[in-house]
Sequence to fold (274 residues):
Amino acid sequence: MKAGFYQFGPVFGDTGANLDKALNALSSEEYDLIVLPELFTTGYQFTSEEEVSYLSEKVPDGPTTASLARLSVEKGCYIVYGIAEKDGEQIFNSAVICGPDGYMGTYRKTHLFFEETLWFSPGNSGFKVWDTEIGRIGIMVCFDWFYPESARILSIMGAEVIAHPSNLVLPYCPDGMPMRCLENSVYAITANRTGTEDRHEDKKALTFIGSSQITGTKGEIIHRASGTNDEIHFEELDLELARSKDFNQYNNIMKDRRPDLYGKLTDDLNDDNS
Fold:
């Protein structure tokens, strides 16, 4: 699988220009899978519910999905991207996957971060893995990485590559993803953005850290982008390494799990019995 990311700095609110920039970059490359940042058409630092509603769009009927689905069909490739998804009265921080046959599906972010909790409904799609001609692709979005259950459930479901659209402002993720990949023997493609948004008079600006990353099944950093520059980058991924869960001749990281002893993982910490 030739897979990678496109890192750039969207202009807040200029959905048409942000989409055109991505289309121009993606059209001139050859690849099997590419991942774009979280909320790549809208920008990130919203200031009101009305603003979020105005900038969000339906999936798959909106212009972003229509354009990227068409490009996926034309190039025979897979594209994963983050979008503000409008569904009736609800708006979700979502990621969409398109492939050679067009729109394939949507994942709605499970773990909302910071002010996202003001604007978006909690994701209700559950985690998903798509079985494609090039491999099994799972999706999580940005802050999902912080919860080890996210990558683990995707791996249990058979993901070989985790597509990870992001808008990272904290420094931890690039150094944290090697452990997520090592403990699950899976590849991950974290597509982050760059730039600064300063849209609140009384709140600090958000500076995005770039550092998009392709991480290997042994926790190795295959490639990490700069913190500030636009970059499109691909690597050849050997999915046989992700299909094998043997850690050594005696240990298999999936078969050796002890779910009968993991009950507390799903307990509500607000319960009196916690």
About this structure: The mean pLDDT is 96. The first strand starts at residue 2 and ends at 7. Residues 127 and 153 are 7 Å apart (CA to CA). The first helix runs from residue 15 to 27.
